[in-house]
Design a protein that fits this description.
This protein has one domain (2-178): Bactericidal permeability-increasing protein, domain 1, CATH 3.15.10. Helices cover 29% and strands 45% of the residues. It has helices spanning 2-24, 33-41, 123-143, and strands at residues 26-32, 46-49, 53-64, 71-81, 85-100, 105-118, 147-148, 162-169, 172-178. The strands form two sheets. It has a six-stranded antiparallel beta sheet with strand order 2-3-4-5-6-7. A three-stranded antiparallel beta sheet has the order 1-9-8.
């Protein structure tokens, strides 16, 4: 009976020892605000138009909130209302990250307008401008990567399969990729 007990423990310890390297195989990337800023700037300006409104988004500013797991973008908003009244203001969108392991690309997903400030526009039009601005931001951010592995010198051979953790620490976006 004692031999079986020790044999069982020995198998369990061996299995755990074999699994530890796989559990520890995570790849950590730290992206500073300035690094992300350079990558995001190339995506803007963008415009979208429907029969009554035109919205232009430009001058992105990356916002990383300490302890958060989302990326914020401040954007300048301009355009026209009813195809004749000029519109200008600022908006803040936030989104989570989506990782495509095959290409090593990171996208900002589910961008939501958190703040919208538009001067001189009647309240009845704000909702439609918000909807169009959010649609425009989502379209560009869902379809164009904000970062691709290898752009800061890390090896593309170290690509992970999924995002294990995202956080903002010391002004940097910290991404932990699970390798297996």
């Amino acid at each position: 009976m004692k031999i079986r007990h020790w044999l069982t423990r020995g198998v369990a310890v061996t299995a755990l020892a074999a699994a530890l390297p796989a559990l520890a195989m995570n790849f950590v990337i730290e992206l500073g605000q300035a690094d992300l800023q350079r990558k995001v700037e190339r995506l803007f300006p963008v415009s979208h138009q429907d029969p009554l409104y035109q919205v232009n988004l430009s001058e992105p500013r990356v916002v990383l909130r300490e302890g958060g797991d989302r990326i914020g973008l401040g954007l300048k908003l301009s355009g026209t209302l009813l195809q004749q009244l000029p519109v200008s203001g600022q908006m803040q969108v936030t989104g989570g990250l989506r990782f495509e392991p095959a290409s090593g690309e990171f996208y900002l997903r589910d961008a939501n307008v958190e703040e919208l400030s538009i001067d001189g526009v009647p309240e009845q039009y704000i909702g439609e401008i918000r909807r169009l601005a959010e649609h425009t931001a989502r379209e560009v951010l869902n379809n164009h990567p904000i970062y691709v592995l290898g752009q800061l010198g890390e090896s593309k051979q170290l690509m992970g399969r999924e995002i294990k953790a995202i956080s903002v620490r010391d002004g940097k976006l910290v991404l932990e990729l699970a390798m297996f």
